[in-house]
Specification:
The structure is a homodimer. Chain A is mostly helical. In chain A, 65% of the residues lie in helices and 0% in strands.
DNA sequence: TCCGGAATAAAACATACGTCTGTTTAACAT
DNA sequence: ATGTTAAACAGACGTATGTTTTATTCCGGA
């Protein structure tokens, strides 16, 4: 009846009715998460009701629970959906094999900026709703973010060794850089005057200036 | 620039019972806001109940409504309490009269960084709960933030004119700078390794490097 | 044609919430 | 003592919520 005491698995391992084809269930899940995310973005997680989600997806309220195990679970799935592609890109593409540190940093930074910009609403939502995540899942999310910082730290540290960059503390610089990626998601209300391209260029330029000595 | 920043009563707090000593009421209000803010920080606004606030303040649930007009009102008051001092400092102190652009920027930046650092929990809370603000009050808050950006834009623009700074777009630089002030509030979970002083120095250094040419 | 699993609609359920009301207590001037 | 007034209190009200359940409909395949 009320199994609140049973440990809540993070969404990935969430146990569901498990009937029929897992394929169709996953598809339905994705549909729910996508629609629900729009609502979370527009109204906030707490202010979005399961009835809202039912209406938005066109899936009956009771039927929703055949695909997700709880409202909280939808949020976890949303974090997964929009957080993973970034790190995935950095690994899939051969960023790590670029020899020139400056070019390597520019390539990684540019791609991250573009992705961040295009997913601005989702990122803003994540910043706002992080608190709602169950502790176990929160840990996973922070770990992923921390990995991203480590990724940039390595690039920067190598550039410093090769005298291509000039920063006193690569770990700090990486933290600042990753944080700066969120400038637009968190402050777009004050940056409307810039076109997408202008903004990306300006941001890239500003971030790099703090890392690459520009006196040459 | 900041014309009506010292508006006191007619903020967003709605009209209250308006009893006898407004003095005691304000004191009580401050007490409520302070305690409630701690709860909002710890559990989030939506997850904090008026009963929680009653328990934390020791003020009876029903009696709370003699001092605040709604739960939402408490949040508005919290924003006011922690948002105003920053702008106030910049105006009170004679930052605007400092002649040397570099010294002027350093002074303002340092103070803002210290204040941001010390109010990190409140700032994190504000980033997260902005959505809950009633539209009318949200507008006021964004205006204040925008004013802060304008403040730094003017400093930067003057430094550019005097060839002391090197930035392509002062408005963008100011936006980035103000955003960077929130690095610690938003990312402290990944920056625990730094002492307060080390962190402040590093941040100041990094922010300035993007504005002041360091080839000298 | 009929069966069985899925979807739907509607309601129920238990709880939690913000807010308000009616009453009591305490302080204090008269 | 007494009367007045503001503060404190417990409890209730109505609504909204996440979740579950029940009764009914739909539809493809035997």
């Amino acid at each position: 009846m009320n199994d609140q005491l049973s440990s809540k698995e993070p969404s990935a391992a969430q146990t569901l009715p498990e009937t029929g084809s897992q394929e169709a269930v996953n598809k339905r899940q994705a549909q729910i998460v996508k629609k629900a995310s729009r609502l979370f973005i527009k109204k906030g997680y707490a202010q979005t009701t399961m009835r809202d989600i039912s209406k938005a997806t066109g899936i009956n309220l009771g039927n929703l629970y055949n695909y997700i195990s709880s409202k909280e679970d939808i949020l976890c799935l949303a974090f997964e959906t929009y957080h993973d592609p970034a790190i995935a890109w950095l690994e899939r593409k051969g960023v790590l094999t670029i020899e020139d540190p400056k070019e390597q940093l520019q390539t990684a930074l540019h791609q991250m900026l573009v992705m961040t910009h295009d997913a601005m609403n989702d990122i803003l939502m994540m910043y706002r709703e992080t608190r709602v995540l169950p502790p176990k899942f929160l840990k996973i999310v922070l770990k992923k973010e921390s990995d991203l910082v480590d990724f940039f730290e390595k690039i920067i540290a190598r550039g410093v060794e090769k005298k291509a960059f000039h920063v006193r503390d690569p770990y700090f610089a990486a933290n600042m850089l990753v944080f700066q990626l969120s400038l637009y998601p968190l402050r777009s209300w004050n940056l409307k005057r810039y076109s997408r391209e202008d903004f990306l260029t300006l941001t890239e330029e500003t971030i790099l200036k703090a890392i690459i000595p520009d006196c040459a």
